[in-house]
Structures are given as C-alpha cells and as structure tokens.
Amino acid sequence: MKKLIVFVLLAICLGVTFEFKNAKMPIFSLPAQEVCFVDDSSYAEKFDVETVQCGDLIFNFCSLNQASKNIDKVKDFEAIQFYFSSTSAEEILKNMKAKIISEENVDGIQIVNAYTPFFAKSVSLNNKKVNLQIASKDGLVIAGLPMILTGY
Question: How far is it, in rounded angstroms, from Cα 102 to Cα 97?
Fold first, then answer.
C-alpha cells in the first residue's frame, strides 16, 4: 500500500512538473512591441515575418500576436527575443517566475541573467544555468530566451 501511495504521489509530481514546463510561456501575456525568433532558417513560409540574415543565423521579426499564434510551428529555434517599451525587467522576472543569477551594468545598460522554469534550453554562466537574459536602458527592455543574440 505504501508503494502505491508513493507511486501515485510521484506520478502527480511528475505530471505537474511536465505541465508546468510545457505550459505556454507567460511572457507572451506581456505587451511586447516585437518578437524575434533567431534560427538557422527563415520562417517566411510558415507565417508573416520580416527576416534578416547575419552569418549563419536568420532573425525572424514579427508581432507578438503572430509569435503567439505560431509558436507551435517553430519549436527548435536558437533563441527568442521580446522587445518592450512599457514593461520593466522586474515585471518580466516576476511574470516568468525567474531566479536572478547575476546582474551587471555595462555602459549604462542594466543586464540581468536569470533562470526560469518556463524555457528548457539554457546556457552555463559561472557554472549556473541561465535561460533568460534581460537588458534595459532608458525605458527600452529586451528579453532573450535563453540569451539576447541581436545585441542590446
């Protein structure tokens, strides 16, 4: 009987974890002006995007609405970036339930590296997982998952 109870509790915990990891990212509920999928291919045939190629990477820019509607079509992107003018870094961190790993100020740009349970890909920074980077200056904020690849 104890084994059955432990098994059921474990199954519930795993189910909750799976559902939490695969829930739609809450960052899509914030008012981003633009979204950019960074990948090695163009998304122009999948949905309405403007593309810019830089080396091996293609930056697929679209509206938040387009990104939200089409996120299931582009599961294996290198990174995704959100551009905000009315949302603070603190709001993004709270929205994404992120834990701050490090903070720094570079040439007047406030950079926050954090970890969120809503995005599976991560990079290592000082032996800690990071999958959310936020840069802000003068009211403009860029959030990148797992990192910002377009520059600040």
Answer: 15
